[in-house]
Every structure is written in structure tokens, then in C-alpha cells.
Amino acid sequence: MKVKVIPVLEDNYMYLVIEEHTREAVAVDVAVPKRARPLPGALCTRAWRPNTGSHLDHLHLPNSHPFQLLEIVGREGVSLTTVLTTHHHWDHARGNTELARLLPGLVVLGADERICALTRRLVHGEELRFGAIHVRCLLTPGHTSGHMSYFLWEDECLDPPAVFSGDALSVAGCGSRLETTAQQMYHSLVETLGTLPPETKVFCGHEHTLGNLEFAQKVEPCNNHVKAKLSWAKGLGSSPQTGELSQAAWSCQTRL
Known about the structure:
The chain is an alpha/beta fold. It is built from six helices and 13 strands. The strands form two sheets. An eight-stranded mixed beta sheet has the order 5-4-1-2-3-6-7-8, with helices on one face. Helix 5 (209-219) packs antiparallel against helix 6 (224-237). Belongs to the metallo-beta-lactamase superfamily. Glyoxalase II family. It comes from Phocoena sinus. Residues 11-206 form the Metallo-beta-lactamase domain.
């Protein structure tokens, strides 16, 4: 399983998940189907490959050249068949309609009928299959009532599993509770996401790492864990030419 991390808008991430044997691809949270913002230093996308030493494949273009999701699909030589949408908000789903127009037959999946261009509504616990990649759909209400996270693993593979958590969970934080009760949100974070295997890699929907940790430090100024994590995040941000700060949103192991 190969994951392309694509920064878009101000601080969003969308993802392209590739089954490397069948060359089938699944997109997660298509905010924009064509234009994506380049990272500082011309780093536009990165691929997560857990069985390599660096976990990263770098792909560079000048900052003035916006990446296109479909260009990445073509460059990778894959067939994009499905979109997994975590929730209906425009910055996670607005690109579905145009992408479906450009790719007739594209399947758009999610748990909320408000999702743009939805072709089928998913339910909690449902499992999907893309070649050797398994997807377990985890309903995680809190940010929205129909928020779905996606837990992925691959057959006979030593790579750790991954969860695409949208706005349910980010590094050192979570999305605002907008539509559900605090009890429901607690269940999503602690009982649903918090019981995933501890080695699970978290691919979240936004780059809010520094803001979350700075807030946490104000709330608990004597918390040494927060201090260490904030120092780590600031250290990544000290070399913007590498685009490493956004690595905090997906390459670290997030523990609840």
C-alpha cells in the first residue's frame, strides 16, 4: 500500500491510496480534483512507504506549478476507481462532483447523505476491498453526525495499518464538535479510534499540529509530554524547504 499525501487549500490534506499490485487507486477527501497548493521548497506530494528507511518518496516541482490530482493519477499509472469521503464539509468533499464528471463510473462513498456526488452510503463496521487492501468503515460522530473514518490494512504485509481520520482526530487534537453530543465524540475518540492497534499510522484531514500543541501547553504548562511534542513539531518546522512540518500530521504514531 502506497499513500500519496496531497496538501490542498490552506491546511487540508487529501490522499491517494494505491494498491501496488493491481494499480487501483482510492482517493480520500477530494477537496479539489485539479488544483492543489504546493508546499514550501517546491515539495508538492510525498508517498508513505513504511517498509523503506525514510518512509518518504519526494516529488518536486516549482512552487508556481500547481499539482493536479488527475496528473498524479496519470503519473503513477493507476486507475482511480473510488473516493472515500470522511464527512460532508466543503473542504473535504467539494471536488467530488467535478471528479465524478471527469471520471464516469467513479464510486463516491461516505456515511452522510449530504456528501457531494455520493453514490452509496456506508454503515459502521462495513468492510470494503481494493485488491489486497482491506477497508473497515468506522463511524466517528463528533465533528459531524455522519463522520466516517477509514481503517486500512493489507493482506500478508508487514507494514503497519493506517487510519484516515478526517476531522475526527488530528495530531494532539480533534475537530470541533458541531453536531453531536460530547458523549458521542468521546466514544468516537476513545472507544472507536483509541482501540485501534497502537502501531496504526494516522492520516488526518488538517495540519493543526503546532496550534493544537501550543493550546495544550497553555492549558497544561507543566505537562512535559506536551513540551516535548511541541519542541519536536517546532523542530520539523525549522526546515521549511523540506516540507517536514506536515509530516507531523501523518508519519507520527498518534496515541490517545
